Amino acid sequence: MADEVQTLLTRADDVVKAAPARRDPSAARKQALELLAEARERLLDVADTDRQLDLAEQVARRIGDLEAEELETVLAPSPGVARAPTHVDDPGRVPPGQHLTAGWPVLHVSAAPDIPAADWRVTITGRVEQRLVLDLDALRELAPTVERTSDLHCVTGWTRLDNAWTGVRVADLLATAGPKPAATHAVAAGHRAYTANLPLDELTRDDALLAWAHDGAPLVSAHGGPLRLVIPALYGWKSVKWVTELRLVDRDVPGYWEERGYHHLGAPWRKRRLRGDGV
Ligand SMILES: Nc1nc2c(c(=O)[nH]1)N[C@H]1C(S)=C(S)[C@@H](COP(=O)(O)O)O[C@H]1N2
Ligand SMILES: [Mo]
Question: How far is the CA of 241 from the centre of ligand 1 (A)?
């Protein structure tokens, strides 16, 4: 099984190397991503855990590289979204290895859902005293609306500064739901079958929001509207778009990218990108 994964990696590399000579390099990219997706599936059958982790990192790195390449083509601002600053006076504000983008790349693994805001529901469940099922109005009634300006850091290398988010603090929602003493983490779920794990102390920071607006305008579907999670202190993959559920759990349950070799915490300042980068 490990050999099959290795073969798929080599084939994906060959496709990428040959891409510039092809008439349609983006087709090569797609083909390489398909090979990597297949490699990712096969990974689950690799019995030797060390080997599996090593291969998972290799797959994750290549996917990250290919995603970064795609992003170069979508750096134009999303329609109606202001350009973000590409210069900072304080270089310490940008995590190591990140570059600034004026535009707002759209990054997700499957198509955006087409669900009107009026029909949106988010459920707070799992290890809570009171399970909450909220539409957007109920969400706004339950917790004060706040604005927080924060930076978004994607593990593929781009950082978008100064995003003005409007929403409710997750901490305020959890205060009503009442985490049980056993709750240590949450699994945030969103369309489509996307999940990310978060320690409760990260989820309850002051700038951790469920947000429905960006720069004062309703959040467009491509960027997670009607409702998305915003977790500025961690890599962007934790900021689940089209969020439908926060499930409190009593242990660290890996989500979509964490299962595919990315770090369980995903902390840009501490260079925690891939599993194996330390705790
Ligand atoms: N539901 C869902 N949320 C998601 C993703 C995804 O694939 N599906 N991608 C994540 C990643 S890797 C990043 S960097 C951010 C990007 O948000 P943006 O597309 O608004 O820039 O969304 C995150 N949230
Ligand atoms: Mo990302």
Answer: 6
